[in-house]
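> run fold Dimethylhistidine N-methyltransferase
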Amino acid sequence: MNQFLNDVISGLTSVQKTLPSKYFYDEKGSRIFQEIMALEEYYLPECEVEILQNSSQAILSEIQSDELDIIELGAGDGSKTVIFLKEAFKTGKSLTYIPMDISPDILEINRELIKSELPELKVKPIPGDYGHTSESLKERKSPKLVLFMGSNIGNFPREKATEFIRFVNDLLQNGDFFLMGVDLKKNPHIIRAAYNDKEGVTKRFNLNLLERINRELDADFELSSFEHYGVYNPLSGSALSFLVSLQDQTVTISGQKIHFEKFETINTEISQKYSLKELDQIGAQTGFSWDKHFTDEKGYFSLSLFRK
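> ok
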């Protein structure tokens, strides 16, 4: 059984049906996500770019070493990171940029973009699952700055997020740094609107996951029988996305029948939000001795710098 099928069957036969959010991003899903990032309600990319433009110099001034490996986990196309790298290049430090991503294709786009903007910067992409490929980083003796941008930490439930930050800490030597993008707790209406846009783009993004399962796993989901629902809990800081079955129905996936009761839900995504105080606590729990937060003007988003 292939991994996609295995994950789908395992998730949909659980007591609370789930689908892993990593499967959102087929070619069509990635295109829809670009639409989401351009939505008026989806504030995150604009906030992060504002911080990179206004605070990159201040972030870099905290890092005293003359030599630096800038390692980016889940680097993507590098279109935001290049803002930071340009500022880093101005410091005169001896830099190596190491973008890591599961997709070799996106890393090639990343490398070409960075090289076109900063031809003298050393770029050493590492394709593959960074859960495995990151072991090679321990062999590098230069001071390190690990980047984990774009609120990716929010895709982990709280316990898993802490586990992941400990994993990053283990890659570092004393004095190394970790810069993490974090979506902050704010007016709950603003967060809820980001996952329930009035144009219905998020709904299309969520339903595309069922369409992908139909196409790739020989399934027969009737998309009109499911509705998108996004909710935010200000107590836990969790924004959750669901697909809701609008009727009692049975779906077949690769010959296996899965029953849905009317109004039964599939949890497709978690996006965890944090306060600055919670980030301080997590830093202390995961082996970092110091942290500092750089936020946008509205205080919606943080690039939080941790030192081992």
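The first helix runs from residue 3 to 12.
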